[in-house]
Amino acid sequence: MISGNSPPISCGIGDYTAHLLPAIKEDNQQYSPIWLSRKERWFSFPFASCQGVPLRRPWHKWERRGTALACNYLKWKNPDLVHLQEEFYSYMEGDASLQLARGTRCPLIVTLHAYHLDPKIERQTKLILDESDRIICSDRRTAGRLLDRTGRKADLVGWCSSPVYPQLLANEETSSSQCFATFGFVHPDKMNFNVVREALGRVNGNNGTVEWKIIGPMDPKGNPHHVKLLQEFTDPWVEFTGRVNDLNDKRFHHRLAGMTAMLLPFRNKTGSNGTATSRSSLQIAWAFGLPVVASKPIDEEEDLRDGDNCILVDEDDPDAWRIALERILNDQSLRETLRKGSLAAARQFGWARLAKEHTRIYENLLN
Q: What is the reported pTM?
């Protein structure tokens, strides 16, 4: 299996692959997966392992040398099957994923984690898909775009399960204060932080009793987006808590389970895939049984059920966000309904089931 990044590099697709591969290995013992990716630094050791899966990292960049080394490794290893995790931005440089697809001499499966409509990206995506024998899409929106733009139907519409296994679930007892959370990569092109800030400002008025914890990596010195957010978001009820180094840390679990709800203002535009079941932030919220308020996806996602496992609002409408937040705060019955819906969704989108769907495709292709 190939992905653009792997741990310890911070990457959603790397985290996804790190959980999927052990689940596949657990589901079917006849498979001996090897993970091909890039290393974090030029001096990092090329041989490693992740949860019992061998990890091979020939080079630290996906440029000419790194791509050539990876292609040579594929040729030397001569696997029975290659599975490429494709999402343009995860490879960072050039056409590495295309060269890897073309260098494969066995059946090729491609997982599309997004279908970007930028002309340059789409051209490369179509060239990669031309090399593939099977296509997996990580959500229905991507599968719909695949069908509309290429005429090909996805062999599997998957999802991204939660990378966290909760030690504590949200309930009225754990939610002792009025505090919302947003979890994920802190970048204004990914999430509309301003609209939530405006909505919460209206909810708080002059009192400021409802808090908002923004949980995710922050680089206040080197990242201009983070510098700007810290300069603008000076409200006493807003806190940037920073990166969570260990998602299985008990203190992190207690903090998350104690939140009133998870707020996910994903942007709906090219370069961002909007709210979808492929979002690990959404899956984490569901796994903890948290009520979720999220921006409406552009394309229909039938697994996002408004009023059952989430509340969906217009991304850029602060008044709609304010109304949704006030409903969460004032309606205990609604909170309980959303908690039950979140836990039901988490059971539906588990890693074990996703692994079984993958091994089914592997077996059909190899046979």
A: 0.79
Q: Can you spell out the DSSP letters for 182-226?
A: EES---TTTB-HHHHHHHHHHHHTTT--SEEEEES---TTT-HHH
Check whether 272 has a pLDDT greater than 70. Answer: no
Task: Give the closest residue to 220 by CA, choosing from 228, 208, 232.
Answer: 228
Q: Give the chain's domains with CATH numbers.
A: 12-160+350-366 (3.40.50.2000), 179-348 (3.40.50.2000)
Computed over every residue of the chain, the mean pLDDT equals 91
In the chain, the N- to C-terminal Cα span, in Å, equals: 19
Residue 175 reports pLDDT greater than 70: no
Q: Give, in order, the Cα–Cα distances in Å from 97 to each of 2, 37, 54, 71, 231.
A: 9, 11, 20, 10, 38
Q: Which alpha helices (H) appear in the chain, and where do they start and end?
A: 12-27, 64-77, 96-102, 119-130, 140-150, 193-204, 224-232, 250-257, 280-287, 318-330, 332-348, 351-366
CB neighbour burial string for 16-52, b if at least 16 within 10 angstroms, e if fewer:
bbbbbbbbbbebeeebebebbbbbeeeeeeeebebee
Instruction: Report d(CA 361, CA 341) in Å as an integer.
Output: 29
The number of beta carbons lying within 10 Å of the beta carbon of residue 354 is: 22
Average pLDDT for residues 175-201, to the nearest whole number? 89
Burial status of residue 163 (CB atoms within 10 A of its CB: 0-12, 13-18, 19 or more): middle
Least confident of 174-178, 227-231, 339-343: 174-178
| Separation between Cα atoms, residue 100 and residue 120, nearest integer Å | 18
Contact 137, 143 (CB under 8 A): yes
Q: What is the pLDDT of residue 320?
A: 97
* Residue with the larger pLDDT of the pair 169 and 271: 169
Instruction: Copy the structure tokens of residue 340.
Output: 């039950």
Query: Rounded distance, CA 175 to CA 183, Å?
Result: 17
Residue 206 pLDDT grade (very low, low, confident, very high; cuts 50, 70, 90):
confident
Instruction: Tell me 118's DSSP state.
Output: -
Rounded-to-integer distance, Cα 48 and Cα 66, Å: 17
What's the rounded mean pLDDT across residues 226-248? 91
Contact call for residues 316 and 192 (beta carbons, < 8 A): yes
Closest C-alpha among 176, 128, 138 to residue 160 = 138
DSSP state of 306: B
3-class SS of residue 252: helix
